[in-house]
């Protein structure tokens, strides 16, 4: 009986150690000479997962030296899962990283420089306005995949016409936007939808912060908050009016990034990222003929000003990876290789995202769908050229400003008090995280 | 002392010594058995509680980085947490939630337990099962259900619309959000509270009530002079466990509101969790230190309530 117990204990110990070794996600070489690299992709729209899987499988089948272990991680568990893996020394060799996290990651020594891992000509192909997003101190720490404007105005042409408005002449100023939203609020259909919770407002309002004040609420070298600049009062006033007048849903069922309320006909207009085009084309096809897009209105009605930041995703290699070169081989294949691969991605996305490589532009130039897409034409000509990069400062600063907008919207405090609170919170972040003078140049 | 007595005494001394030795030996054996029996728990506690706690305190004196050498900062992060308005606001949110749910749950539980006590055996068994049912519902499921119920088109606003009060912005208005979350919180917890109180009620001898009735005591007199004093231990237990659990609420606001609007439902654990999710070394150290501070706050609250327990010995029914 005792011997049986010991045997059971030994089996349990072996099973546990095998299971624990299976948890390892670092690069490792198998006896056959194949190096396995782990790749974590943050979960996006379903078609993106299908696209990634297709090309991971093709890469794995095309050679036998590197095997990519592809894992999809939901966005709401991404941060804690990645941190836990980093703490255990098991961070993925390759990970999706947004532009805003490249600079802070480099400051922490999180990413490997790609200059030593990829041929120099691969960086020459990256468009000039995107290169600074991934370049820190003259080195490239991420390979860009796409850019997507964070804020575009979508509107229902049929409802606009029914309300006596001209769909060919969308609102240009915030005052006009409020007039449109008021006229389009009919019964259960609200005039529009826009972010209304601090975590969404923190990032989706970056473009409008630029529009209102020509800057973000912190000075250029990150040494002092600038949230009390009176120009931000107009921005908070816009959000407050939309919320207080019942022009947007007061209890939104989904976050800013999800265009479902527009797709389901619950609102007549929507402030949304360019990615919503892909969602409409895939999930709400009937809405496409009734939809038009326009640059989001500016505070004074002038055109050619920033109303959106250019967000987007890159692939990075972990600084502690034991298989950096092999990880870079996969990035070279997927993002920097045959332009047809990325062209396929943009086609799959319904041209709702924008290229970062000149060679991919050329590959798409011959695609009649791309040149004929009305949404792509407006966004690429009227929004993307004026888009700014996402800020690289810590998220706490964006959240403090997002909280100020939410606070003013929902009446927790008046607009000046909300901005004052945000200003103090941002200065606190600057002090405690020693940010002064650390802004990337 | 006579010779006989002296002889008895001489004979009795070794016998008494032997008895004492046997007693001491027995006592030692008892001690050894007791130590052996508590050893597994002490070892497990040391591995899973005491050591992690000590190591956490050690780590909290560093700015933790997973890629660079951690920087020793002493007690700096304790100062940061103590100065953080969001940390203190989250403690108040936790206390407010506890105040909303714990006394309400106890009152509802007491009323239901009193009602069940009056029922026949079969009806009581049915009621106990029905009341306990919410306790086995997953918090996630309950959260999603209540989110649907609170929507503009949800059943609650539909009922209010019959009175011309709808729609109320339950989950997106800073003044309504926490009470709106407290409702599923009470619903999930009152089953267990009721059963515990029912057990306490059934322990009170029926004769007390009969005597009181003969003396002309009404319902409220019986409640305040018999039931509540004799349930004191049970009520204090429910208060202690209820408060510490309520302040640590995490899943309901995570799913229903994400801590918003404007941090109105940002409970301490949710605040620590959201702080941890930021990918900076500052966030890692800050959330770790905030967890330790929360441990102290919870300890202090428990201490206050335990003092209350000790200050007034329960009356044994």
TrEMBL record, chain A:
Alphabetical keyword list: Cell membrane, Lipoprotein, Membrane, Palmitate, Signal
Name of the molecule in the record: ABC transporter substrate-binding protein
Pfam family, any one: SBP_bac_8
Domain of life: Bacteria
TM helices/strands, residue ranges: none
Protein's UniProt keywords contain Transmembrane: no
Alphabetical list of InterPro entries matching this protein: Bact_solute-bd_prot1, SBP
Organism: Rhizocola hellebori
Gene3D superfamilies the UniProt entry points to: Periplasmic binding protein-like II (3.40.190.10)
Position of the signal peptide: 1-19
Listed SUPFAM superfamilies: Periplasmic binding protein-like II
Statement: the UniProt record of this protein carries the keyword DNA repair: no
From TrEMBL, chain B:
Keyword Transmembrane helix part of the UniProt annotation: yes
Signal peptide start and end residues: none
Positions of transmembrane segments: 33-54, 95-119, 131-150, 176-202, 230-250, 286-309
Start and end residues of each ABC transmembrane type-1 domain: 87-305
Keyword Electron transport attached: no
Cellular component annotations (GO), alphabetically ordered: plasma membrane
GO process terms (BP): transmembrane transport
Topological type in the membrane: Multi-pass membrane protein
UniProt-listed PROSITE patterns: ABC_TM1
SUPFAM superfamilies noted in UniProt: MetI-like
Compartments it resides in: Cell membrane
A UniProt-annotated Pfam family: BPD_transp_1
The family this protein is said to belong to: Belongs to the binding-protein-dependent transport system permease family.
Entry protein name: Sugar ABC transporter permease
């Amino acid at each position: 009986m005792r011997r049986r117990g010991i045997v059971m204990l030994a089996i349990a110990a072996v099973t546990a150690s095998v299971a624990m070794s299976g948890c390892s996600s670092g690069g490792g070489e198998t006896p056959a000479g194949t190096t396995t690299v782990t790749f974590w992709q943050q979960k996006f729209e379903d078609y993106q997962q299908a696209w990634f899987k297709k090309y991971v499988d093709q890469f794995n089948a095309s050679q036998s030296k590197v095997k990519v272990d592809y894992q999809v991680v939901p966005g709401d568990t991404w941060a804690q899962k990645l941190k836990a893996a980093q703490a255990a020394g098991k961070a993925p060799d390759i990970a999706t990283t947004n532009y805003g996290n490249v600079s802070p990651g480099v400051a922490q020594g999180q990413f490997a420089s790609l200059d030593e891992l990829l041929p120099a000509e691969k960086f020459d192909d990256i468009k000039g306005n995107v290169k600074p997003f991934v370049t820190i101190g003259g080195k490239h720490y991420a390979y860009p995949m796409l850019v997507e404007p964070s804020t575009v105005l979508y509107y229902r042409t049929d409802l606009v016409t029914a309300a006596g408005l001209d769909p060919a002449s969308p609102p240009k100023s915030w005052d006009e936007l409020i007039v449109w939203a008021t006229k389009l609020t009919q019964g259960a259909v609200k005039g529009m939808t826009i972010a209304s919770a601090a975590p969404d407002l923190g990032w989706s309002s970056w473009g409008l912060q630029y529009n209102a004040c020509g800057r973000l609420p912190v000075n250029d070298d990150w040494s002092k908050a600038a949230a009390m600049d009176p120009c931000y009062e107009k921005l908070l006033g816009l959000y407050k009016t939309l919320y207080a007048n019942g022009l947007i849903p007061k209890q939104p069922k989904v976050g800013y990034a999800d265009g479902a309320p527009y797709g389901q006909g619950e609102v007549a207009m929507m402030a949304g990222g360019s990615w919503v085009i892909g969602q409409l084309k895939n999930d709400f096809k009937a809405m496409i003929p009734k939809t038009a897009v326009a640059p989001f209105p500016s505070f004074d009605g002038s055109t050619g000003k920033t109303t959106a930041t250019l967000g987007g995703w890159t692939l990075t290699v972990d600084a502690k990876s034991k298989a950096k070169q092999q990880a870079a081989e996969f990035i070279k294949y997927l993002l920097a290789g045959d332009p047809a691969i990325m062209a396929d991605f943009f086609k799959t996305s319904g041209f709702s995202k924008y290229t970062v490589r000149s060679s991919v532009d050329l590959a798409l130039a011959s695609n009649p769908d791309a040149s004929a897409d009305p949404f792509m034409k407006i966004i690429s000509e009227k929004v993307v050229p004026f888009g700014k990069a996402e800020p690289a400062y810590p998220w706490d600063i964006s959240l403090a400003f997002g909280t100020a907008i939410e606070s003013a919207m929902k009446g927790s405090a008046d607009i000046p008090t909300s901005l004052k609170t945000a200003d103090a919170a941002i200065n606190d972040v600057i002090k405690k995280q020693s940010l002064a003078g650390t802004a990337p140049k | 002392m006579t010779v006989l007595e002296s002889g008895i005494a001489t004979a009795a001394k070794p016998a008494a010594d032997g008895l004492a030795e046997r007693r001491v030996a027995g006592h030692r054996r008892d001690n050894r058995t007791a130590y052996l029996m508590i050893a597994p728990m002490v070892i497990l506690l040391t591995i899973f509680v005491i050591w992690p706690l000590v190591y956490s305190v050690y780590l909290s004196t560093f700015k933790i980085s997973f890629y660079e050498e951690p920087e020793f900062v002493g007690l700096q992060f304790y100062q940061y947490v103590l100065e953080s308005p969001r940390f203190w606001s989250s403690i108040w949110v936790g206390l407010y939630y506890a105040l909303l749910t714990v006394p309400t749950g106890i009152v509802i539980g007491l009323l239901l337990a009193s009602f069940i006590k009056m029922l026949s055996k079969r009806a009581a068994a049915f009621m106990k099962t029905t009341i306990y049912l919410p306790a086995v519902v997953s918090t996630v499921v309950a959260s999603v259900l209540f989110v649907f119920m609170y929507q503009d088109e949800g059943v609650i606003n539909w009922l209010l619309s019959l009175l011309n009060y709808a729609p109320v912005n339950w989950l997106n208005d800073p003044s309504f959000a926490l009470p709106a979350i407290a409702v599923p919180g009470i619903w999930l917890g009152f089953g267990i509270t009721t059963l515990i109180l029912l057990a306490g009620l059934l322990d009170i001898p029926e004769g007390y009530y009969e005597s009181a009735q003969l003396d002309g005591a009404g319902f409220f007199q019986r409640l305040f002079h018999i039931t509540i004093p004799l349930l004191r231990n049970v009520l204090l237990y429910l208060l202690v466990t209820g408060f510490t659990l309520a302040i640590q609420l995490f899943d309901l606001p995570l799913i229903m509101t994400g801590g918003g609007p404007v941090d109105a439902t940002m409970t301490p654990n949710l605040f620590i969790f959201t702080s941890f999710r930021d990918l900076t070394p500052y966030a890692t150290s800050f959330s770790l230190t905030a967890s330790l501070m929360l441990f102290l706050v919870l300890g202090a609250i428990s201490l206050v309530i335990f003092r209350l327990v000790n200050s007034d010995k329960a009356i044994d029914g």
